[in-house]
Design goal:
Layout (H helix, E strand, L loop, with lengths): L2 H17 L4 E6 L5 E3 L4 E2 L4 E9 L5 E11 L3 E10 L5 E10 L4 E16 L8 E3 L7 E5 L2 E6 L5 E3 L6 E9 L6 E6 L2 E10 L4 E12 L1 H17 L1
Antiparallel strand pairs: 1-2, 1-7, 3-4, 4-5, 5-6, 6-16, 7-15, 8-13, 8-14, 8-16, 9-12, 9-15, 10-11, 10-15
Length: 233
Amino acid sequence: MNRIAIVALLLCVYAAYADAPAIEIECGTDGGVVNYWYPTGVDNGDGTYSYSGTYNDSDGHWTLDLQNLLVKSDPYISVVYGLTNFAATTQNFTLSVSLPVSPTIVPSSLMGGSTGGSVTDANVDGIGTLSTIGPSAFYTGLIDGVGVLPLYPHPYSVSVPFMGGTVNIPATSAGLPGPTLPGPAVLTDIGITHRFSLTAHDIVGITSVFVVTPEPTSALLLGLGALALIRRR
């Protein structure tokens, strides 16, 4: 194999790895162990990657069921979780997923997000409540680690209406369809954080989306800049 062929092969291998998003999932409770996972996704062949799996707290206090995580590096996140609180008391949870972004989005962006779900009285004791923990919203869309889009701001709570019952967290959104909300530049990553308390032995299901795109004027300027470089060559 000549040097050109070797270089071409290495570039192909590098590109394959470079295209695979390095997802980080974080889940933990106040005063408990914070757990991190870095799953490997399935390439769907259209620029998106899918992730799923079951993750257990190292202290045995909860289980996270990642039913479906769909991401694309241009970028968006769509995630469906199920979380069971096995502890004997109400726990305060922080649950996050982050996605590296490539290429960067400068100097500004447009964004939108949505969330919803349900809470189930899984131990049939007539108590099943999810509440926000001040000052955090239930859902926060993140850009470069900074909260930029809150949904269900504090205070917010839902409770089951009867023993063994389920109560919905009604779907809500901002900047969708679109996205249409003005956002900052995106230099490293986007993410979604959920912050909430959940009663003992109960289950919350969450479906959330966060989407970011270049602001149209910025995209046009980037395109013109690329065209100018091509013409110079």
